[in-house]
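Appendix B. One record, verbatim.
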Amino acid sequence: QVRLQESGGGSVQTGGSLRLSCAGSLYSTNTACMAWFRQAPGKEREGVAVIHPDGSAYYRPSVQGRFTIARDSADNLVRLQLDNLKPEDTATYYCAAGRFWACATWTSATGYDYWGQGTQVTVSS
């Protein structure tokens, strides 16, 4: 059974950093459209970053320059580096995987085939 497993969440103060990882089981993260979404209480799930099969990456404007998505092909992982965190970044972060066409409209959650269970990120002021 295909599984995606996130790790690396936690609690930090404003300006702190975290590194999230998404590990694929029975699924190659190297050739898929891989994305990170987040959802805060009472809000809709929103796309944070995506990495295409060719390695190109895109971000939502509010995290551009602070977050970095990258593949670790050797370990079949996709990582999300979160720097200069702000209280508004507080949310549950989810890893998502889909076929290459999911990247065309990457901020739409409906385009992905598999999801992880989420990892909590809490940023205090």
